[in-house]
């Protein structure tokens, strides 16, 4: 059956794995690589929503409200 | 100008009606949103939806479109065409060598103009390219108004990706002189993409838009992310287009004519103009039928001419030109640092995109998973001549109610120039035998902020680690067994001029995790559907959630924004 959902094998949790303080099931390992500045073409409905969010400094979820 | 009309408050009672315009050197189109909300290209009073960008004057009467273009034979001096790319340019920067039968460009106050008899008077007038553009746009606007019965006041115009500020400014001024307010300019390839995406598909994809026109060909490689478009690379050839193909046929037929009559029809201006027009018609016919006949009364020195050519012959004669289109596209993909395998869609736009062989060549250039949208390779292709106007009309409908200031702010680099993540973000998974692979959640070249969710079904059981990483696509080449010498012997026409003739290789895309960002642990049952959401903020901080599909709660984690780098970009 191809429902578009990939079947995947996750690696097992290693012995002695420790989460971040206050978050036993998560640990941060690194930060995002430096971004590249590019221009988004100012066209289409999705861009207009993006521009509205950016101009008003809103996040996705704030925008959805 | 038009202080009252263009001011912040639209005149009461007058319905704002915006259209989309595609304005090419060869053809123009106008489009609007029909009552059912679908963008459609409008026919002018002659019934043409592809309107030649031509004006012609006979005894002071102005002809436009098809009627004007047909004047190229009898009245070439007072017929203007192929002028768009002269707008907003210094005369010194253009190549004024006459290459078309139409009125030749001339220098006027450092800009380009034409000397034409556009009134009943015998003395010609010097008419600037800006004024010609105004007249052309006025006719397009009038056609749209006549069609819809509403007064067209404004438009979105599609322009090439390499249009300079001087050019767009000149075009905006020329439009204003035609009482047409340009709401916005949008890039032609983006307009073409929007015409396709209006069918409801906004999936993330890498797309090549190849706009193959009359005088020029323009390529854009575009990352489409969440319905937003970033151009990764462009390529242009200002000497490659439908006219190049017309020339192949002109030369072919001229040679046939010489064989018969020992006269070269290309030596006479009027004969050449006739031959060009008819060769173009034959070329278009060959896009649909297996053969086409050129028939010209009194081609040169009173001799009529009739000659038939089949498609195979044409494709042979034009083979080199066809290859140039392929090469231009290949180069653009390379310039974008991509592999041909990365391209999911190729959209062929522009009149020359009707040519079956060009589309077929691209079909074999790209992978079998790539859809080539052209009339001859895809049953769902949209007429390539209509794409730019259609996209412009969609944009016009989206912004026609906006205040001028709103549009200006939204299109300003402060908004449009934005950080894009250079690598994909996703989950590292196990492939066979200890090797790892990577499932993309957010593709590379996505603009931030961005939020994406991915569902995966687990094949593993127990306490697992969902490792969020940056990942990169690699091309894996697997050499197939070398074919035996005996087998290859005597095989003269090998596929391509590849260096390693005896080695066949299978190339495929694989994903590799390159940098871990964080880990989530969870107890997972085999068959469980796990939903991972990655949210990258405008400051590049990341929040991640993983939960069972449909569950209310799950594990959350946050990754801090990176330290500012030396160039201050992060
Ligand atoms: N059915 C067809 N088959 C082959 N070529 C076609 C067909 N229809 C139109 N063309 C060619 O397409 C070219 C015009 O393309 P288009 O309408 O996209 O022009 P344009 O964008 O105005 O061109 P440019 O600005 O490059 O001069 C012409 O050379 C024309 O002969
Ligand atoms: Mg064009």
From TrEMBL, chain B:
Instruction: Give yes or no: UniProt keyword Protease.
Output: no
**Which InterPro entries does the UniProt entry name for this protein?**
ATPase_NBD, HSP70_peptide-bd_sf, Hsp_70_fam
CDD domains membership: ASKHA_NBD_HSP70_ScSsz1p-like
Pfam (any one): HSP70
According to the UniProt record, where is the region Disordered? 481-505
- Keyword Lipoprotein attached: no
Q: Which residues form the signal peptide?
A: none
PANTHER family membership = HEAT SHOCK PROTEIN PDR13 (PTHR45639:SF32), HSC70CB, ISOFORM G-RELATED (PTHR45639)
- Protein name stated in the entry: Ribosome-associated complex subunit SSZ1
